[in-house]
Amino acid sequence: MTTLEELKQMRPVDSHDLQRLVNEMHAEARVFQLQELRKDLGMTSR
Question: How far is C-alpha 46 from the chain's CA centre?
Fold first, then answer.
């Protein structure tokens, strides 16, 4: 996952863009954690 510093270096971002990116990262992290949790609980269909 890219760090905010790397994102800033790639292109100039205003605070609104940055906040949106951060929100997306947090959302992705939550989804990933939920998937991992389900795996731990043996709730996956696999």
Answer: 24
Its pTM surpasses 0.85? no
Sign of the torsion formed by the C-alpha atoms of 9, 11, 15 and 21: negative
Amino acid making up residue 9: Q
Rounded Cα gap, residues 6 and 29, in angstroms: 18
Measured in whole angstroms, the distance separating CA 18 from the mean position of its chain's CA atoms is 13
In our burial notation (b when 16+ CB lie closer than 10 A, e otherwise), range 20-33 reads eeeeeeeeeeeeee
